[in-house]
Design a protein that fits this description.
Distance between the termini: 54 Å
Strand content: under 5%
CATH class: Mainly Alpha
Helix content: over 70%
Shape: globular
CATH architecture: Up-down Bundle
Number of helices: 7
Order of helices and strands: HHHHHHH
Number of strands: 0
Structural class: mainly alpha
CATH topology: Four Helix Bundle (Hemerythrin (Met), subunit A)
Number of domains: 1
Amino acid sequence: METIEISGVIGMIALGALASNFLVGICIWSNVTFTFPFRLTFLQLHKFTGYTAAITILLHIVLIPLDPQSGFSWGDLVLPAWTKHQPLANTFGSIAFYLIGVVVISSYFKASLRLPVWRTLHFLSYFAAVPLILHCIITDPKLQDLPIDWLDAEKVFVVLCCVAITGLSFYRFIIKRSKQAS
């Protein structure tokens, strides 16, 4: 298995962790009561899925320039708009990475931030979902600049995770809010 393929698999793990993190976050926000084994709480699970996503995203990014066939340099990670392959998809990925990075770093320093500041920064995760979904959907995982293969099993997984994230975000801001207003 090539390094770029390993990076793609790790990217899908990151997307799955982010989708799980959205689900657990919605459960926390909705005050869902559920008893997990081993006295695990929703907050612990939320932290676990969030940090898992952050670590796998970093690993996904670091592996890309290590594959000589990818044509990526370390500078391409900072300025992805000028990459050899899929500059638009890579730019969306970078924007999502930067926004998710702010969310993760602010969560790590939550105790030293005021709650309204932290909450505002934490809402960036919903804004990060848009470029993340675009990055995941339009990226050709083998960097061959081929059109989207909607029947590829990896792309189906990506689409399902993206639908879950979009649906949870819609529930959070539209459906739940309209029920509270009634």
